[in-house]
Design a protein that fits this description.
heterodimer, A: alpha/beta, B: two-stranded antiparallel ribbon, two-stranded antiparallel sheet, 5 helices, 8 strands, binds flavin-adenine dinucleotide, binds iron/sulfur cluster
């Protein structure tokens, strides 16, 4: 009987459990999670503060799932090292757990660069976990001024979650634009304009030089006062367990398309790894929920003798703020086609007969998955009416035989 | 499993399927009460072209990328039908980003996503297929 062990109880773990059970009904599955919760939908923490969901609704699967999958969850415990010779994982309480196949899905942790005086700030928060969100929620107050360091996805989702419950929000980022990882200058300017309209103030190309208890002095000399500080500068993948035993790490844990690490019988999936991004043909950390899910599935499948491959990875993200929706995918390389209108921003990127990237904001996001699919499947643009599909994502633009297969055959 | 399939050569672009779909999902007993003076929000959309038209709705994929992408766990597979738990959905549009067929339709009034559940909430066979006047939508096993 195979012993499957998983470190990190989140999305990649949940989908790995499901994939293992499809192949192996007998083997034991054990999951170790540092947080005291069964896998939950991490992106929802801002939505819980916003009131769009509740912490109670956040578990990714209900308790019956783990029962049905015969998966044992050991929560509130941290794995501190791997003994690869004995094939055991050692926990913070000294317990040793044996494995035949091990999955490392440890995700990432907030990265806080050294900042002068940060230790003097009493009310400071990261924004990664349910517990982070709960402790921030306790301090929310209509009179509170909030300073958010970091204008990336996490920092701005936090802003959306709390704006209505605080007095004001200032956001500082070193980058010259907001959401630097998913938007180009023009798109970022549009979204920034919209967020400023909601009352958020931005201080870009700037950073905090020093803190006192309730003030931040920026490099530019600007002084900001605040009651609550949210640190969302960035995240770092949790790679130490694998690096410590000689596994290959290049920013993230390096895996092949079977989600295997360089060490025998150890697999890795999710935000702690790098993925091979097919649009740029390079290895990147794609810290996104769907990727963690699909990687977890491949890892679980491979650990239990399957043949799935994780070989179509792309960056693809949907994010919205106060009803303004943004969908982006792929890489912003090659030729640019700007099809923006007054209601929506739309730039497509093509290279060598392929759609390789897109930025859509506003009304242009509808049916965006038709584009995402062109990118992910690397469908030759010459096989369809690109002029038509560029205007509007429609199945009409496909050749009849492709359409008949899409709509008339079993999926 | 039985699914909805489209015969594009037969579609008249009459849009009746859209009305029947909106009716099915209204939960009401009477079509007039359900649809009169309302902008309908169907989960099936007719694409019209010069020579060809066809209705597009959820394929109920065997390996659904929408389910893997949904950040709230609202989408799931139940006996082959891809279902949405509206109480969990946070309207993030990640499923719109993912679905290769472009069939998830936001309902701005409700602030949540909606999708075809093969008329299972109403407990009938798919209305779009049953009421297509030209058999351009077929509900069968393939
Ligand atoms: C606020 C926020 C909003 C987001 N919004 C989106 C979004 O809209 N769309 C999107 O695609 N993605 C979003 N993401 C990213 C998404 O949440 C991640 O990609 C996804 O959660 C990654 O899943 P994972 O399985 O790799 O692990 P993670 O969710 O990162 O979890 C890893 C788990 O492993 C545990 N762990 C780590 N080390 C150990 C150890 N040694 N022993 C035991 N346990 C350990 C951690 O405590 C953690 O619980 C968001 C993230 C945040 C923080
Ligand atoms: S099966 Fe029902 S819900 Fe689905 S598209 Fe047809 S009428 Fe609409
Ligand atoms: S919503 Fe799209 S991806 Fe999901 S099952 Fe339907 S057709 Fe497939
Ligand atoms: S809009 Fe709703 S159903 Fe779609 S991915 Fe987001 S939470 Fe899931």
């Amino acid at each position: 009987m195979n012993k499957y062990l998983i470190i990190g109880a989140s999305i990649a773990a949940a989908s790995a459990i499901e994939a293992i059970r499809k192949n192996d009904k007998e083997g034991s599955i054990t999951v170790i999670g540092k947080e005291p919760y069964a896998p939950y939908c991490r992106p929802l923490i801002s939505y819980a503060l916003l009131g769009k969901t509740t912490f109670e609704k956040m578990p990714y699967r209900d308790a019956s799932f783990y029962k049905k999958m015969k998966a044992k969850l050991i929560l509130g415990k941290e794995a501190t090292s791997i003994d690869k010779a004995k094939k055991q994982v050692i926990l913070d309480d000294g317990t040793r757990l044996p494995y035949d196949k091990l999955l490392v899905s440890t995700g990432s942790r907030p990265f806080v660069p050294p900042m002068e005086g940060l230790d003097k700030v009493e009310k400071k928060f990261s924004f990664m976990t349910i517990d982070d969100a709960k402790s921030l929620e306790k301090e929310l107050d209509p009179e509170a001024k909030v300073l958010v360091v970091g204008a990336g996805l996490i920092g701005l989702k936090c802003c959306e979650g709390i704006l209505a419950k605080v007095k004001s929000i200032d956001v500082v980022d070193l980058a010259p634009r907001i959401l630097p990882s998913i938007l180009d200058d023009k798109a970022a300017a549009r979204v920034q304009d919209y967020l400023e309209g909601k009352g958020i103030r931005f201080f870009l190309k700037d950073s905090v030089a020093s803190f006192t208890k309730k003030t931040a002095t920026l490099k530019s000399g600007t002084k900001l006062t605040f009651d609550l500080l949210v640190l969302a500068v960035g995240v770092r993948p949790n790679t130490a367990l694998v690096a410590d035993i000689g596994g290959t790490v290049n920013r993230g844990i390096v895996t092949d398309d079977c989600c295997k690490t360089s060490i025998e019988d150890i697999y890795a999936a999710g935000d702690c790894t790098t993925s091979h991004d097919i649009t740029s043909d390079s290895d990147k950390i794609l810290a996104l929920f769907p990727n963690a899910n699909m990687q977890g599935e491949v890892a679980g499948n491979q650990m239990s003798g399957g043949t799935l491959r994780y070989d179509h990875a792309i960056a693809a993200n949907a994010i919205g703020f106060f009803g303004l929706h943004i969908i982006t995918a792929g890489s912003y390389i090659g030729d640019q086609l700007d099809l923006s209108t007054k209601d929506g921003y739309k730039v497509l990127f093509t290279k060598d007969d392929h759609l390789v990237g897109m930025i859509l904001i506003g009304d242009t996001v509808l049916r965006a998955g038709i584009y995402t699919n062109l990118i992910r499947k690397q469908i030759p643009l010459s096989s369809l009416d690109f002029e038509q599909i560029a205007q509007q994502p429609r199945l009409m633009a496909f050749a009849k035989k492709d359409r008949v297969s899409m709509l008339g055959e079993k999926r | 499993m039985k699914r909805v399939y489209v015969e594009e050569d037969w579609c008249l672009a009459c849009h009746l399927c859209e009305y029947w779909c909106a009716f099915s999902n209204s939960g009401k007993d009477n079509m007039v009460a359900a649809l009169k003076n309302k902008t309908i929000k169907p989960m099936i959309q007719v694409e019209e072209g010069d020579k060809i038209n066809f209705a597009v709705s959820c394929r109920h994929c065997e390996d659904p990328i929408c389910v893997k992408s949904c950040i709230s766990g609202a989408l799931s597979i139940e006996d082959g039908v891809i279902k949405i738990d509206k109480s969990k959905c946070v309207d993030c549009y990640t499923c719109i980003m993912a679905c290769p067929y472009g069939v998830l339709m936001p309902n701005e009034d409700e602030g949540i996503m909606q999708k075809c559940e093969l008329c299972t909430p109403r407990g009938t066979a798919p209305y779009c297929a049953a009421h297509c006047p030209n058999q351009a939508i077929i509900y069968e096993e393939r």
